[in-house]
Amino acid sequence: MEPQNRAMHLNVYLSGEIHTDWRDRIAEGVRAHELRVTLTAPVTDHPSSDDCGVHILGAEDQGAWKDHKGAGVNALRTRTLLGKADIVVVRFGEKYRQWNAAFDAGYAAALGKPLIVLHPEEHTHALKEVDRAALAVAQTPEQVVQLLRYAINGEL
Known about the structure:
Blueprint: E1 10-16, H1 22-32, E2 37-40, H2 46-57, H3 63-84, E3 87-91, H4 99-110, E4 115-118, H5 128-133, E5 136-138, H6 141-153
Helix pairs in contact: 1-6, 2-3
């Protein structure tokens, strides 16, 4: 018997930390398993993300207003891609506190999007509420690929 939903295509939004290769590892796994997945993400170039508002809309004298403009411009992309996503993956890394990732996880949950959370085991207690909203909690990008493979093809 052929696996069901072989023709299924998923839009997967990859939110969260930008300092490691986790997105690349998921993309490599998607290619290796020939999964029908379109991966999208926020702008991961930190200076571009920070400066987009003032670059496009004009300079600000105060840092708070610079951040306010940047957050709005970044939200144009983030909210659009989150809204179109079939699955949202949110990565919490080890180096920095990702407040934006927590916001994206909550926003995805509020939209009723299937959510996969990705973080090291030592973050389990701190992220218990986020983990509770998720359908799966993974510790490696490879586990995320396997979750996507199972969701699309029903294969272990």
